Amino acid sequence: MTFELIVQKREAGHAQDVRDAGRIPAIVYGAGMEPVSVSVDAHVFDKLYADAGESSLIDFTVEGGQSTKVLVQDVQYDSIKDRFIHVDFRQINMNVEMHATIELHFVGEAAAVKALGGTLIEQRDTVDVTCLPKDLVNHIDVDISALATFEDAIHIKDLAIPAGITIVEDADELVAKVSAPLSEDQLKAMETSQVGDVTAVEVDEKKKAEEAAAAEKADEKKA
């Protein structure tokens, strides 16, 4: 899938003015180039980021200039206003091996979940890799149908890695497994523990309130 993005060069000024105009302040940088301040349409970037993420090459053009390849390197997000407030784009040299982080997509159905009532534990959702830019993929599928029992596990070494990509992490690191359902005794113990925690908090809060009241009375007597 090809991703394209056209941005505008941004002159000096307040970033908030850019945001108020429905655009996101951004910067593009890379080896052999001076960083360039730009802005991107907020709605266009929202859709692009949802589809491309941070591990898909983007055909990137500053209005009136030539197209180049970039990756979304970093985003800043305002959770209160529910919007992106800044984006970093990194220019990519297509002839130089690069480091990247690729998302893991869990596919299939685990028999240990469906038939045995277990819970899928996704230990991680990305892997760090090296590759030439032309070999970079948007995601790697993890087939969880291999998890038929609670003893089965998927490690990094079990992943189906596309050609040209090398994972630069411990091959024995756990990716996913299925945990067995809790027994009645374990559930009761958990409920008891939660009740105990709530009681302890209530006692601690009551103690603090009493100490505060006592301190207040002591101050009144001094006055």
Identify the quaternary structure here: single chain
| CATH architectural name of the largest domain | Beta Barrel
CATH superfamily of the largest domain: Ribosomal Protein L25, Chain P
Order of helices and strands: EHEEHEEEEHEEEEEEH
Helix content: 25-40%
CATH fold title of the largest domain: Ribosomal Protein L25, Chain P
Our count of helices gives: 4
CATH C-level of the largest domain: Mainly Beta
- Give, in spatial order, the strands making up the sheet with the most strands: 1-3-2-6-5-4
Give the strand content. Answer: 35-45%
End-to-end Cα distance, whole Å, is 76 Å
Structural class of the secondary elements?
alpha+beta
- Counting structural domains, the number is 3
Outline the low-pLDDT stretches.
Answer: none
- How much is the average pLDDT? 87
Count of beta strands: 13
Largest sheet: 6 strands, mixed, barrel
Shape: flat
